[in-house]
Amino acid sequence: MVAINIETEDGQKEALRRMLTIRAFDTKAGELFGDGELPGFVHLYIGEEAVGVGACAALEEDDYITSTHRGHGHCIAKGLDLERMMAELYGKANGYCNGKGGSMHIADVDAGMLGANGIVGAGPPLATGAALTSQVKGEDTVALAFFGDGAVAQGQIHEAINLAATWNLPAVFLVENNQFGEGTPVEKQHNLQNLSETAEAYNIPGFTVDGMDVTAVFEAVKEARKRAVDREGPTFIEADTYRYRGHFEGDQQPYRTDEDIDLWKENDAIESFKERLIDAGTITESEFEEMEADISAQVEEAAKNAKEADYPDPNEAYDDMFNATVPEIDGFAQQMRTDGGEDR
Amino acid sequence: MSTESAPSSGPSQTEEMTVREAIRLAMREELDRDDDVFVIGEDVGEFGGVFEVTSGLVDEYGEDRIRDTPISEAGFMGAAVGAAATGTRPVVEIMFADFLGVCSEQIINQMAKNRYMFGGKTEMPVTVRTTEGGGMGAASQHSGTLHTWFAHFPGIIAVAPGTPRAAKGLLKSAIRSDDPVFVFENKAMYEQTGEVPLDEDYTIPLGTAKVEREGDDVTVVATQRLVGESLDLADELAGETSVEVIDLRSLYPLDTDTLVESVNKTGRLVIADESPLSYGTHAEVATRVMENAFFSLDAPIQRVGVADVHIPFSPALEEEVLPDADDVKAAIDRIV
């Protein structure tokens, strides 16, 4: 469930479904965190759903994405499984990373999801690398890097874009401008009117789209993807969006008011897309409610199952460091065991 | 040096060549063997690398596989990590180990943690070649020996060849490994010559040390340039003191068994490694031996390394801080 054609009615309904799923999943994750159910930190994607869904809808199944610490939405948009995601948030054995990654590090390389990332700006070089693989192997896959407005101040993203532009790699750089780098407004971080002006320095196309409009994001990424596979090089897209929740759950948000948030909610991505689809007769109100109820049930089920799932065996803390090609030399090499071992 | 066109050479066939040639031969063989292997770094193409290690490769394999980068260590190290995660096998050249700090985010948080953090579902077949060491008047930012940093950091395999043969065998194993492997080449060794197996399948298992010369009175565990110097010293001392010389070769994993076996025989240990003494390679080797062969020790373990200073410019100062055979001899004299 990756590429969808938003130009068709089924595609539009699927896009709406994915956005609703992200919101339901992250709403539930926020509740669970607030209830003390989840360890660690949780960074929610609520408000930004149109960006992840619009972008991934325009990608093919074999394409790659890199993500941020706000990655749940990207995972769902790329088609990852809710049960295994929720289990990972709980640190359970059946999670995507067997409980070793948690909320900030969900990955599924087979699905083209190269990993959420706890380091701001670290993803774009990885996407450049995935695009390099595509070029070296002569494949038609594309790599898209999601990153935040805060990352635009990081040196490594500029190195990554410069490499991709210089080598004409099939990459798409998509900055989700949610208006804040952690707790600091974007205008205090960059001397730019639009972050997409960054593209000028690398002589690649750059433009800003309405990140609250799933169709606009879809169209932009579709065009960028076409350029990439046509060997015309990378594209830089800025999607203007807004996160409704704090940087992390529990953030007191002294940097903005409820009124600021309400202003953006008037243009909510899910509400406005739903209204468009109802006006066009693509979906009825009751079909929408049915969809919402169905998603809610799936998320509740995933949360319930995750809560009941087993934690990993503590000995698994020593697994997965290396591939088994390293010979076992001595006791220290226990750390290199990948076979689940019996004598620890 | 003929290689890719040579009919399969028997395992016993060797040829005398320099460390530089041995490394180039290893890369050429692996580039021939596997289309997914590519070389990436600053000036590795037409320029041939500042130490001429990749010289000529771009003519044979083209710019796609011998890929010149901008001066952009964080960018291309990150790209190598992303490329490795998606099915290729990059061999990254970092011109001087001192520059590893520039791209340490991509090494520490991405490359080294990828497999573990994602529950063992990813592979990270990336090789990083870099140069270490002083002796060229290159001053502090181009002379450091940093391998302890990376040998210390979980998720990275770190090797440091002490002979031309080891340079070839270890690099080939590194390129074939599905884990991140750092190969620390001592730049003062590039001209050092020795017999190197021509067998295209000659590899050295990562995590193994090698007894280069057997002896009875004292074990010298050395790395890189100090292996050769210690072997020459052992020749000099023959008849007077019987010195066993081990090329440590692999910093992580560490071949404790070989070290312990040697110390059980000799009862004395000198550790010679051109890196700062505190908290480093010497300390790890000493601890492993203490843990496993304490009662075989007849004398205190001796460390030969760099005092905790940076490498200075002036020849008079540089010579003072760099360890050499005289320092190894002094260490032996203290305990034998």
Features:
heterodimer; A: 344 residues; alpha/beta; Rossmann fold; five-stranded parallel sheet; two-stranded antiparallel sheet; globular; B: 336 residues; 2 domains; seven-stranded mixed sheet; 12 helices; 14 strands; 21% strand; disordered N terminus
Question: Care to describe what's here?
Answer:
Chain B: Residues 17-192 form the Transketolase-like pyrimidine-binding domain. Chain B: GO terms for molecular function: oxidoreductase activity. The complex is a heterodimer of chains A (344) and B (336). Chain A is 41% helix and 9% strand. Residues 327-344 of chain A have low confidence and may be disordered. In chain A, the strands form 2 sheets. A 5-stranded parallel sheet of chain A has the order 1-2-3-7-6, sandwiched between helices. In chain A, strands 4-5 form a two-stranded antiparallel ribbon. Chain A has one domain (9-334): 3-Layer(aba) Sandwich (Rossmann fold). In chain A, helix 5 (123-137) runs parallel beside helix 6 (155-166). Chain A has helices at residues 9-34, 49-57, 72-77, 82-90, 123-137, 155-166, 198-202, 214-229, 258-265, 269-279, 285-308, and strands at 64-66, 143-148, 171-177, 180-181, 184-185, 206-210, 235-240. In chain B, strand 2 (37-41), helix 2 (57-61) and strand 3 (66-68) form a beta-alpha-beta unit. Classes of the chains: A alpha/beta (344), B alpha/beta (336). At the A-B interface, helix 5 and helix 6 of A face helix 3, helix 4 and helix 5 of B.
